[in-house]
Design brief:
This protein is of the alpha/beta class. The protein has helices at residues 16-32, 81-90, 107-119, and strands spanning 47-48, 59-63, 69-71, 74-76, 96-101, 124-127, 130-131. Helices cover 30% and strands 19% of the residues.
Amino acid sequence: MKFSTSNKPLNIFSYSSLTDIVMLLLIFFLLTSQFVIQTGVKVKLPGSQNNEQVAPSNIVVSITAERRVFVGTEETSLDALAGKLSLTLKNSESNNLVIRADKEVNIDMVIKVIDAAKGIGIDKFTIETEKESF
C-alpha cells in the first residue's frame, strides 16, 4: 500500500515573522538609547515640570552633595577645573557645558563652575534636571 503525502518543499518564503522580529528590535534599541547619556557620578537632580531632553555633550560637570566636582567621571578641584575643562573642550565638537548639580548644592558652587567655564571660552550652559512627576 502506497501512502501519499502532501509535504512538498516551500517555493515561497514568508518574511512576515522576520519583519516582526526586526520591528521589535528597532523599538527596543530606540527606547534604550535614551538612557545612554548618564555619567558614572551619582547626583540627585532637581525636579522640573518643563524638562527637555539634554543635547549630548562631551563636556559634563557633576557636583555632588558633598561639594565634590567631577569633569566626566574624573574628580577635580575648583582651582583645577578650568584646566580640565580646556583639555576636554579641545577633544569635543560641541561648545555646550552640561552641569549636573545635586539638588542639595548651593547656587554658589554652580556659579563658580560657570565662571571657570566662561574663563576658557565656553558660552553655552545647560543645567540638567529630572522630570517632576505629580
